[in-house]
Fold this protein.
Amino acid sequence: MNEEDWVSKTFANDLASEPPMQLTAETVVYAGRRARTRRRVVASVGAAVAAAAIAVGTVGFVSHRAAVEEPAPAKTTSIYTGRAAQTEASLERVIEQRLPRASLWEKSTIYPSDWNRDTALPPNQADNATDWQAVYTFRSDPRHTLRVTVVSLPSNTSAPSCPAELSSGQSCTVRPDRSTFEVNERGSKDGWARSVFSARPGQMSVTVTEWVKAGTQAEARNGWKYTPAELEPVVTAPDLVIPRPAVEPPPPTGP
């Protein structure tokens, strides 16, 4: 399980039993995580059963509370051309300009994706991307990761707003420009993630998630390299944007 799996499962668990809600920036982003996570779980079950048959061992779910090592994301080189290559270069430039102490991080990958997959889109579909992911690893500890996600929201997404109820470790404010600024901290035995999220008028959202291997929230807060205030210039950067998809897929509603 890598940090993306863990973050996806953590947030997806919060939505697993919720009824359908209005289409907001938050529900689109979280529903996409939930849909991708459920696909991972189905695939994991099949692999686990096969492994059990071969090894005749005890196999169970690897939940977000399992104590596992977090591998560093595989480093990749760009395969994109045209508009996608321009978007990739722009995202890398803006992130590294806006991110404080950017030299502490090494880029692992930047790729286009959409609401219904957990892998990169092939080059011939890159112009249909609904989100772009940029993953960085901390140079002195590759298990410590930073993920920037830029999402082009569906055209009928409602105006940005804060959740009606906030969970423990969550805060949210609506800014004068009608954008939102939200912070979430979640933990398990594997580690802790802090996500800073902003949804803007104009159907665009940005999330920065920093994952650190830590046993407690206090330990994580000592290990995280950024405060939410330091990440605010990243998630609110007006030039941290991606093009609208050439063909907009239907918003995710389930697995």
